[in-house]
Specification:
This protein is mainly alpha-helical and 306 residues long. Helices cover 67% and strands 0% of the residues.
Amino acid sequence: MSFSVTWGVHNMTGSFARFVPPLGVAVVLLVLAIGFGPLLHLPSMVILNTMLALIILGCLAVAAYLFVVCNRKFAAAGTVVMALALWSAFYLSSQAAPWAVWTVLFFVAVALIAYDTAQDTARKSWWPLALVRVFFGWAWIDNAQDHFRVGNWFVGDGGGFAQTASGAAGRPATYFLDPLYQGFLRGAVTPNADAWAGVTACGELAFGLMLALGFLTPVAAWLSLWQSSNYILMKGFLSHGAYTDKVFFIADLAVMLTGAGLVYGLDASLQHHVPAWFAKWFMGLVDVERVGAEASRLGRISPQPT
């Protein structure tokens, strides 16, 4: 029995079930993150430094895989440059204009990746999706480093995050979900605000990086939706102050539904080399989609039903 493959809008003629495995991975990662930080009552800077170390090592590991297995040398170089960009954003002296340095390195990395993954991108005319993915990825990372540099986000239980969480927990409720979320803030977040500050900033950093790279994009999009939802609930769904977070939510959802990581992102190259189970659980892809994308990339006609 033969089959047909349509790679339009991430093959959205299929069911939403393709996004369930990445959702499961996202939930597991959230549980691990919450268990690592708040439940262990770790200081925010310990959490942040640990996450930065893991991210930089992860970038180097992905770069090695791209270089050795995928034969994508420029994409590998771009991933290494991205690791350097993150190091610069958080560890470069403030006298060296770290914002300008890391931003330039960030877009150099993105350009190298886009150049090399173009040969694996089946729909090159969908490049606006890559722009949305990269821009919002950059914005998440920028938020994280801004908290670190100028936001007093990590000043113990009296820092910027603690004040924001306490204010959200004590504001008047404006709609029916507010009392539930405010109870969560009072019961779980504000008593351990410093650890939650670290977890929150690490989330912005990790999800933004994954989106920018186009790496495991469905997982990153689910996690970004979680992050945006929390910001919306903290400010109040009906609050005008939450409009930026609502834009982020819509962008995160669009990135996931359209498979934007397959457009000039690392997922476009990795999908042809990773095991089927990895593609399913971390990229939301099944074998038939990968075959179709490969056929489209090489200009072949996919098998049609008989």
